């Protein structure tokens, strides 16, 4: 994990303002193009909303979730761009036994397919259910949004942020949060007074602004504490436990065996044949 | 007669049950072949919302505590020096070695890129419980293999390696116990990361400790069951006196486990406990049938002295641990509205693995001296006048 001692304010983050999203799904297409992802067979209304494809998958790193709701007796749509949150302290990176996931200093959490052994622990660990698996292959790998690291590292914006006309802003995390708060302050009647991603899972590189309660949009409630700390509080005890158990058992057996050896030598001395004389 | 013919003739002489096991193992092998040809997606019921299924829940998370007999008994016998339990050590080691080897098989089947399993040895990530478990399993399988070599060397009369093994015996026992402590508990650490996924009936920060304690309960119970069964079905000597001693230790361990479990449930759990009736039923069954009932039974001296009742109590403990592991790694992880059940092929593979375990145990017991081991001829004391002690009286077993 490279995320310790990192100044997350300086790393890049997405600000996704869902009140400005028109549901054009340009980001979805741009992402497929840049990452050369295959198309998926269209099947309408198989997911929990009207979106297509129904779920993120090995072919779809981001998608717009459609949600209908009623407001003042009128049917309305809400949209939500789903993607990897590029957590500041990613659970996926912390549990991967071979360190295939890495939090880069630029912000994106990258995945090294060459290292991955396919244990799928990252999928179990990610609180947002982001990593997807190539279930169709005999020797599958994990797939997820790359944060367009190859672009970001060259100073470009991610493909989805470049395509989007208004809803996605990309820049320093600190500035994105400032900008978000400015927007809320400017139009308090419109926005919900909460940023999703500023604290979730210890803070992420994707910040959401909405008009609708987050749970209505299908956002999962997620702990505020960085996830790696949950396992680390047990794992950091490992060397200590190993040494304690090892040394106390060694001592114990040395003591118990010594007792026996002494008793045996005593007996041998009595019978007059000490093993020492033999050699 | 060619070698093949000798083998065929040998197999023809086997009991019907053993032949049946061979068929099951062969089916399991075929099914695992299908997994590599057609991929995980087609052959299993796993998907993106349920990435770990039966193979992790049973073949790994459950099989590891079931193989815990070796380390528990090794520590009891050698470190606390309770010598009369000695005859049970070898069967326990064989069970442990088989168990762990089959855990490795299960893991390899489940990995997407099994050919890269050596990556865990090269790219270290000490923050990952999976890294720790794979290191420990590799180390522990090696230790058990070395311990298992003793009966093999005895069988073929290799005296030099036997002496070497005898010298490193104690360090091996200590290493085995410490490594096991770590990875039995790390299996619990696995699920600490599933903060908002594992239901609060099982999720709490003491999960690693609970896994370790319940593994010890399972370990002791397995030894009781195994010795009772090999006495009954394989004509091995009756060890009931020794088993009574174990049955006296067991309720203490269960009590400690139960105390920690109740404490963590009452004091450390965050989140609702009673919102999922299905899970609540599973939890109650796990604790009532798998913990409380055997505890009450074993506190009764009549039960401990009765072969059948004692084995029944041990079976209950084992069932409780199995259910606990399934609850933690499978049922408790299912989000409301989703449901995973293993596919036909997944189940065949797992049945094959269980059959392989029993089969190999029976075969090893048939061809190697794991029961006819005479502890009184062996001196396990640490030779601190190195050669001298050895020459004096240490290698009785090697000559026996
Ligand atoms: S959202 Fe999931 S996959 Fe993305 S960085 Fe966070 S833990 Fe990793
Ligand atoms: S599946 Fe690959 S990337 Fe995910 S935790 Fe396992 S090794 Fe790491
Ligand atoms: S950052 Fe790149 S990979 Fe991620 S959703 Fe946007 S376009 Fe796709």
TrEMBL record, chain A:
Cellular compartments annotated: Cell envelope
Keywords recorded for this protein, A-Z: 4Fe-4S, Iron, Iron-sulfur, Metal-binding, Repeat
InterPro entries: 4Fe4S_Fe-S-bd, 4Fe4S_Fe_S_CS, FDH_Electron_Transfer_Unit
Ranges where the 4Fe-4S ferredoxin-type domain occurs: 12-42, 75-106, 107-136
Keyword Nuclease: no
Main location: other
Name the record gives this protein: 4Fe-4S dicluster domain-containing protein
UniProtKB/TrEMBL annotation, chain B:
Membrane spanning stretches: 20-40, 52-76, 88-109, 129-149, 170-194, 206-228, 249-268, 280-301, 313-333, 339-364
Keywords noted in UniProt: Cell membrane, Membrane, Oxidoreductase, Transmembrane, Transmembrane helix
Enzyme class: oxidoreductase
InterPro entries, per the entry: FDH_cytochrome_b556_subunit (IPR051817), NrfD-like (IPR005614)
GO molecular function: hydrogenase (acceptor) activity
Membrane-protein topology: Multi-pass membrane protein
Tagged with keyword Membrane: yes
UniProt-listed Enzyme Commission number(s): 1.12.99.6
Protein's cellular compartments: Cell membrane
Nucleus as UniProt keyword: no
Pfam family, one: NrfD
Family assignment from sequence similarity: Belongs to the NrfD family.
The protein, known as: Ni/Fe-hydrogenase cytochrome b subunit
Organism of derivation: Geomonas subterranea
């Amino acid at each position: 994990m490279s995320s310790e001692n990192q100044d997350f304010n300086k790393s890049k983050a997405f600000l996704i303002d869902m009140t400005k999203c028109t549901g054009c799904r340009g980001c979805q297409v741009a992402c497929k193009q840049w990452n050369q992802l295959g198309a998926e067979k269209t099947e309408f209304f198989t997911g929990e909303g009207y979106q297509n494809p129904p779920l993120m998958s090995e072919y779809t790193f981001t998608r717009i979730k459609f949600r209908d709701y009623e407001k003042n007796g009128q049917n309305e749509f809400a949209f939500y761009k789903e993607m990897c949150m590029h957590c500041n302290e990613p659970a996926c990176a912390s549990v991967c036994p071979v360190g295939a996931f890495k939090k880069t200093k630029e912000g994106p959490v990258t995945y090294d397919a060459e290292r991955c052994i396919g244990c799928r622990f990252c999928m179990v660990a990610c609180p947002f259910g982001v990593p997807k698996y190539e279930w169709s292959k005999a020797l599958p790998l994990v797939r997820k949004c790359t944060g367009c690291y190859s672009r970001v590292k060259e100073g470009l914006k991610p493909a989805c942020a470049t395509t989007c006309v208004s809803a996605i802003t990309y820049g320093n995390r600190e500035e994105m949060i400032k900008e978000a708060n400015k927007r809320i302050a400017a139009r308090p009647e419109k926005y919900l007074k909460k940023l999703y991603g500023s604290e979730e899972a210890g803070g992420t590189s994707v910040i959401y602004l909405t008009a609708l309660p987050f749970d209505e949009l299908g956002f999962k409630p997620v702990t505020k504490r960085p996830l790696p700390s949950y396992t680390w509080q047990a794992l950091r005890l490992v060397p200590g436990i190993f040494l304690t158990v090892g040394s106390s058992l060694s001592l114990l057996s040395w003591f118990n065996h010594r007792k026996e050896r002494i008793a045996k030598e005593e007996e041998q001395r009595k019978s007059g044949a000490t093993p020492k004389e033999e050699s | 007669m060619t070698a093949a013919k000798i083998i065929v003739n040998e197999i023809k002489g086997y009991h019907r049950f053993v032949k049946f096991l061979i068929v099951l193992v062969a089916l399991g092998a075929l099914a695992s072949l299908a997994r590599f040809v057609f991929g995980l997606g087609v052959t299993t019921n796993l998907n993106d919302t349920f990435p770990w299924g039966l193979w992790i829940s049973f073949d790994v998370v459950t099989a590891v505590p079931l193989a815990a007999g070796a380390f528990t008994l090794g520590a009891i016998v050698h470190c606390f020096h309770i010598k009369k339990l000695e005859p049970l050590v070898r069967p326990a080691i064989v069970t442990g070695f088989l168990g762990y080897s089959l855990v490795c098989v299960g893991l390899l089947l489940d990995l997407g890129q099994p050919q890269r399993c050596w990556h865990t040895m090269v790219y270290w990530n000490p923050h990952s419980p999976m890294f720790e478990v794979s290191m420990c399993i590799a180390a522990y399988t090696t230790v058990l293999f070395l311990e298992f070599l003793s009966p093999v060397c005895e069988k073929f009369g290799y005296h030099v390696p036997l002496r070497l093994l005898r010298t490193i015996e104690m360090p091996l026992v200590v290493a085995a116990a410490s490594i096991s402590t770590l990875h039995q508990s790390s299996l619990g650490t696995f699920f600490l990361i599933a903060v908002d996924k594992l239901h609060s009936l099982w999720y709490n920060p003491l999960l690693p400790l609970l896994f370790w304690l319940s593994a010890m309960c399972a370990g002791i119970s397995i030894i009781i069951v195994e010795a009772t069964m090999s006495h009954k079905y394989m004509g091995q000597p009756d060890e009931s006196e020794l088993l009574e001693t174990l049955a006296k230790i067991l309720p203490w361990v269960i009590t400690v486990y139960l105390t920690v479990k109740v404490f963590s449930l009452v004091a450390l759990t965050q989140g609702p406990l009673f919102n999922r009736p299905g899970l609540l039923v599973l939890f109650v069954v796990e604790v009532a049938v798998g913990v409380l009932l055997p505890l009450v039974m074993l506190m009764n001296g009549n039960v401990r002295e009765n072969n059948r009742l004692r084995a029944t109590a041990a079976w209950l403990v084992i069932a409780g641990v199995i259910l606990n592991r399934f609850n933690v790694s499978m049922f408790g992880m299912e989000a409301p509205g989703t449901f995973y059940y293993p596919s036909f092929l997944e189940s065949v593979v797992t049945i094959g693995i269980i059959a392989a375990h029993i089969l190999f145990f029976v075969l090893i017991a048939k061809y190697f001296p794991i029961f006819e081991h005479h502890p009184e001829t062996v001196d396990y004391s640490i030779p601190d006048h190195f050669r001298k002690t050895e020459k004096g009286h240490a290698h009785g077993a090697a000559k026996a």
